[in-house]
Amino acid sequence: MSEIRSKAREPLSVVRVQRATMQEDVYRQAKELILNGDLAPGQSITIQWLADAFGVSAMPVREAILRLTAEKALTVVAGRSLGIPHLTRERLADLTRTRLEIEGLAVSWAAPNLQPATLARLDELVEEMDNIKPNKEARKIYLRANRALHFEIYQASGSETLFGIIETLWLQVSPYFNLLQERGNFVVSNKHHRILVDALRSGDRDGAVRAVQADIGDAADILETIL
Fold first, then answer.
1. Are 17 and 26 in contact (CB under 8 A)?
2. Which InterPro entries does this one have (predicted)?
């Protein structure tokens, strides 16, 4: 129990929310913690801890937790503590098959829509991931930049429906990206990112799709050995 409490006190990046949009903001902020890998497998939090972090009452946090539980992004791990659901090999395989198709489709749709400013932003993110210093913050920085790069591209698909499906898939798998750093996947993954961005810049739609699918597949292969 003392270990759970100590983990719950670890600093997370949150923003105090405004009353007018409280319920949606709490949900969105909690969702961001998961999508960015700030809440890792094995780490636990409580409703009260989140309420204190966001500066709100427990009620909007409970509502956010209900939504995230329904989306299979959170689960009760012990007593009142919440955490990332256990990921089985079978579930990983199912998510991977779906991601290969859905995220490949998003890249294909995004390819003709990417503007020079977005491509420049993607270059910056690839460079940022290449230049991350090996310290205790490296994993957090990489995971945020990785998510930003993928979602910049998926947003350019122009489909809110497709983007929403991808968000739901990432809610279920992205916390496990925390486990990839020690296996060297971050370096390999960023090579795929560079190929992906170069293909998008040159108009090679098929090459871009192959690059994002290789990125997804390599990460899944490593996660399977861990699980």
1. yes
2. GntR_C, TF_FadR/GntR_C, Tscrpt_reg_HTH_GntR, WH-like_DNA-bd_sf, WH_DNA-bd_sf
